Amino acid sequence: MIRFFFRLVIGLGSLVGDANAQEQPFQWHNPANSDVQGIAGRGWASGFASPFNRFPGSAKEQLRNDVWQLSRNSAGLYISFTTTAPEIVVRYTVEGGMAMPHMPATGVRGVDLYARDEKDYWHWVNGKYNFGDTVEYKFSHIHAAIPLKEYRLYLPLYNAVNWLEIGAAEGSSFAFLPVPQSKPIVFYGTSILQGACASRPGLAYSNMLGRRLSQPVVNLGFSGNGLLEAPVIDLLQSIDASLYVLDCLPNLYDAQRFSREEVQQRIETAVMNLRKTRPDVPILLVEHPAGVAAASLDTALVNPYRRVNQLQQAVFDKLQRSGIKKLYLLPAEAFSFDASTTVDGTHPTDIGMQRYTDTYERMIRKITGRPAKKQ
Amino acid sequence: MIRFFFRLVIGLGSLVGDANAQEQPFQWHNPANSDVQGIAGRGWASGFASPFNRFPGSAKEQLRNDVWQLSRNSAGLYISFTTTAPEIVVRYTVEGGMAMPHMPATGVRGVDLYARDEKDYWHWVNGKYNFGDTVEYKFSHIHAAIPLKEYRLYLPLYNAVNWLEIGAAEGSSFAFLPVPQSKPIVFYGTSILQGACASRPGLAYSNMLGRRLSQPVVNLGFSGNGLLEAPVIDLLQSIDASLYVLDCLPNLYDAQRFSREEVQQRIETAVMNLRKTRPDVPILLVEHPAGVAAASLDTALVNPYRRVNQLQQAVFDKLQRSGIKKLYLLPAEAFSFDASTTVDGTHPTDIGMQRYTDTYERMIRKITGRPAKKQ
C-alpha cells in the first residue's frame, strides 16, 4: 500500500554526490562496547538488557508489557562524541514500524546529528539517509572552520535500536563523551513526549529542551501508555532528579476508561509517592495544551482534554491547600496552541514541538531560578 | 519495507468513536459537477483536462512531461463551501506515492479543513483519516457555537486527485463557494513551494499565505522541476496576476548542471518575458533560505545554495541598473533559517514553513502597500 517515490526528489536528494567518500577507510566505533558509558538521556547508569533501552532490565517484571515494549524505543537517547573527521557515518538496525500516517520515517526511524561550537551554539548537521535493513546516515563536508566541542547524535523516536556504529575517517580523532553527571529533569508522559509527530528526533521537545537548558533530560514517554501508573512512578523515584514532570493527561482524557475519581487518584498518588522518596524535588503537573478552543473545532476532541485538565487543577488545588510544597502546574493556555500546532488535534507538528519547548523552558527556568542564556 | 503501526496510536486514534455517524444519511456533493466553479487556487478559469489539475489541458503540449505530471498534483488547490452540517465527510481517490521518507502521508496524500469565522479567524478542523484505496476524512462534532462563514478544504500536496466528494448530513445546507475573482499572487517554484515537507496541506506556505493575506495564491511548485523554463513563464504570463514570485533557485544550485551563464540567463529571460506582457505587475525574485550558515554545517549543501543566490543578486542588480521597475529581491537572510527550519537541509519543517509564510507576508505587504491585519 505504501511506497516512497524517490524519483521526484532525486534532483535534490543527489545533491551531495560523494564519489570518493566510500574509498576512504572508516574506523568504526560502537558505543555499546566503549569503555566510556556514552549513551545519554537515561535515568540509570547500568543494568540495561540492551544498551539502547530506556529502563533497566529489572523493570520488565514490574511493568505492563506495553509499557516495557515502548520503553525499548530509543526516544530521548543520544550519544555524545568528539571527532575531527569531516565525514561521519552512522549505521544501525532497528525494530518497529517505518513511519506513521502523520509522522515521517525521519522522525520514527531516523537519527539526527547536532554539533555544539565553542560559543555553545548547537548547529544542525545534514545527513543523507538510506532506510535499508541497515539504516545509514552519512554526514559529509562538515564545516571545518567552526571549532566544534561536541557532537550529539539523537536516536530514533519510535523504533528500538538493536545495534549501532559510528564511523569516522581513519586518522581522525574520535572519542565518546561520558554521560553528564548532573541531576536530570525527568519527564513521564505520552506519545507527545515520546516525540510524535516531530519530523526528526532533534525536534522532539525533550531533545530541544536538553540543548536549550544544557541539562540532562530523561524522556519517559510511552505513546498511548503514559498512564501515571504506580510501577512507573516507583521507577521515577529511583532517579535522583532535579525536577519531575508529569505529563500524562493526553492519555487519560477518556471518561469511559478513566472516571473522575480514577484520574484524580492517579495524579494524587503519583505526587504523594514521589514526595515520600524525594521530598525536596519539585514536581510539575502539565495540562494538555490541545485542550484549548483555538486548537481544533472538534468539540468531542477538545472537551475531554479540557475536562481532564480541570480534574487535575482540582487535585493541584487540593494538594496545595494541604501544604505540599514545590508543586507546580503548567496550564494549557501557556502553550498558546492554535491552528498550526498539531497535525491531528493531539500530536504536535514541529511548530507545536517548538511551543512545547518554549513553554517548558520558561516554566522550568522559573521553577529552578535559572536565568535564560542567550543561544 | 514500510508499514504503519496503528496499534501504538490506537489509544488516541479512536478518540472520536462515532458509532452513530454512519447511520446518518449523507448528501454527497461533487465540486467537479457543480454549477459553481468551486475549485480554487488556479490561474485559469477553465480548460482543464481533469478538474483537479493546476494547468489547463492545452499546456501539456508545451511542457516537459515531468512538469506536466507534477502539475497534476493538487498542491495549493482548495475547495470552498458553506454548510450547517456538524459532520463533514470527504472521500477521494488519488494517484501517486503515499509518503516520502521525510514527509508523512497526511501531507503527501491528505486533505486539510479550515473554517473562517465571522471575525475572519481561520480555525483548523480535526479529521479522522483512513488511507484506503478511497481515502476518507471525517470531520465530526464541529463546534456549533462559532458562527462560520466559509470552509476551505485543501487538497493533497503530492498526489493527483482523480475524484472527490464532500458529504454533509441530509437536511443541512450545503453550497460550493465560487472562486474569488481578485487577481492572484502567482508563485513559480520547487518542491518547497509544492509543500515539501509540511505535515499537512494547510501548513504549506502558499496555503498559509492565502489565509493570512485573504488573497488568492496560485501554487506552481513542481518538486525537482521548477527550473525557470520558458514554457512555464509563457503560461505565467497568461495569468492576470497581482504579483509574480519566482522561487526556483533551490532547483538551480547544481553548477555541473547549470552554469553561471545558464542560471543568470534563465532569471533574466523570465523577468524580461513577464515584463513584456505584464509591464505593471511586480516581480519578486527569491533567494534560497537554506543558503545561510545557520541552516546546516554541510558546506557542500549550503555553499551551492549561496552561490546561486549570489548569481541571482548580480542579475537583480543589473536589471535594476537597466531601469526595470517593480522588481524586488527577497534575500536568504530575511527568512532567518536555523537548526530547526529544515528536515534535510533543503525542505522546510512546519517551523520552516511558518518562517516562509512570515517572511513572504512581510515582503508582499511591503510591495503591495497593504498593512498587516490582526488575525
Provide structural commentary.
Two copies of one chain form a homodimer. With 375 residues, chain A is of the alpha+beta class. Chain A has two domains: 154 residues, Jelly Rolls (Sandwich); 184 residues, 3-Layer(aba) Sandwich (Rossmann fold), CATH 3.40.50. Chain A is 27% helix and 22% strand. Chain A is built from nine helices and 16 strands. In chain A, strands 2, 3, 5, 6, 9 and 11 form a six-stranded antiparallel beta sheet that branches. The first copy, chain A, has a five-stranded antiparallel beta sheet with strand order 1-10-4-8-7, with no helix packed on it. In chain A, strands 13-12-14-15-16 form a five-stranded parallel beta sheet, with helices on both faces. In chain A, strand 5 and strand 6 form a beta hairpin. In chain A, helix 5 crosses helix 9, helix 6 runs parallel beside helix 7 and helix 7 crosses helix 8. The N and C termini of chain A lie far apart (44 Å). The N terminus of chain A is likely disordered. The interface between A and B is large, with 80 and 80 residues. Chains A, B: This is Hydrolase. Chains A, B: Keywords: Signal. Chains A, B: It comes from Flavihumibacter petaseus NBRC 106054.
Rg of chain A: 21 Å
Q: What portion of the residues of chain A fall into strands of 2 or more residues?
A: 15-25%
Which class best fits the helix and strand makeup of chain A? Answer: alpha+beta
Task: Tell me the total number of β-strands of chain A.
Answer: 16
In CATH, what is the homologous superfamily of the largest domain in chain A? SGNH hydrolase
The pLDDT mean of chain A sits at: 92
- Biggest interface between chains: A-B, 80 and 80 residues
The biggest sheet of chain A amounts to: 6 strands, antiparallel
How many H/I helices of chain A? 9
CATH architecture heading of the largest domain in chain A: 3-Layer(aba) Sandwich
CATH fold category name of the largest domain in chain A: Rossmann fold
Count of all domains of chain A: 2
The run of helices and strands of chain A is HEEHEEHEEEEEEEEHHEHEHEHEH
Oligomer: homodimer
Q: List unreliable stretches of 5+ residues of chain A.
A: 1-21
CATH class descriptor of the largest domain in chain A: Alpha Beta
Proportion in helices of chain A: 25-40%
What is the 3D shape of chain A?
globular
* Alpha carbon gap, first and last residue of chain A: 44 Å
Protein name (chains A, B): Hydrolase
Domain SGNH hydrolase-type esterase (chains A, B): 183-365
InterPro entries (chains A, B): GxDLY, SGNH_hydro, SGNH_hydro_sf
Signal peptide (chains A, B): 1-21
